[in-house]
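lol ok so funny story. i was supposed to be doing the assay writeup but got distracted and ended up predicting the structure for this chain instead. priorities right. anyway since i did it might as well share w the group, maybe its usefull for someone
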Amino acid sequence: MKYELIIIGGGVWGCSAALTAVRAGLKSVLLIEANPGIAQESSAKAGGIVTDLVWHQDDVRWVRRSRQFYEEALALSGDASILQRYGMLTLAEPDRAPLLKMRAENLASQGIQAEIWDYRRIQDTYPELDRLASDVTGLWTPEDFHVNPTAYSQAVFQEARRQGLGARLGDRVERLEPQDDHVIVHVSSERLMAERVLVTAGTWSRKLLNTAGINIPLRPYRVQLSSLDFAGGYHLPMVWELSSDVYLVPDGPHNLLAGDGTRLAEFDPDNYQTTGDEEFLANIADQTVQLMSLAETAGLRSSWAGLCGGTPDRRPLLGRVQDRLFVAAGDQGFGVMRGPALGELACQVALGQAQAPALNPLREPYSDFPIRPGFTLEDEL
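and the output, tada:
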């Protein structure tokens, strides 16, 4: 059997691409995922913030389209855990207050709700943030929400299965072998054939394409999150504190996700520490306590680390790398915000239904380029 399309990687991007493929009318689409379940790696370890605080016009469009995917998945599945409408409060010291105001004006010009809050407004609304300096400025974006990437991916995967998607879970692709009129996918002890292959394997994408002699400019770097236990509960939105780059995300009435542990160095996706390191745990505890006294009595439930894909220009790698072989990778730390839209676009490019020349995955040769954070309030670093 020759599949019309094989998608390798079952995270947010891959599952969104799979649903796009079956909706496009393809009758033989196969999704292969190395783990026994959907979205168990980078997607599962993401913070899950979806915000319009992006600069690039492509990102603006992709976030808007991704919001539609998330809303649709919620409506289709009825799984309330997919999406939580917390809103986000971005906090800045005086030197960056003008930047917040500029961003508020930019959002308003797009018809997106955004308000500048002074210290008093922040305290009146969220008194738990009782250790902020009196000269702090806040940007309130009430339409921002939190997504459970695993729940979303599972919902999309099930809908795609209902429409005819084939799946192999717990099978790791060992090698890709492009031919003139098809691609051979070596998995377990089998050789699968496909007219087209789309690699959406996150930070494993470079290693996988290496088996076909292709080296894309992708460097995996490590990010960390912790889950804090507030026994007495709390009342907070999502919070992003710019000076420390700490972000807080509600996770139920007693648990709060807290992250700031980006490590801008390359890591091997098959061999890295998957729990938070001691430096991160000490730093996140200190930074959270500096925001609110309630954190002094909070306990650590767990911590984990995942990998993000860095690219030379901080833009995604999406498109053809060889005849019939395509890739979508390079989330740069905010893949969940744009993931469904990028998965859709990658599928459309692979099927010849769209073009994305600016995202050509081979636009720059691989090198040890400096890894930079992807999601920042400024348009450039």
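The two ends are 49 Å apart (CA to CA). The chain is about 25% helix and 30% strand.
back to the writeup now i swear
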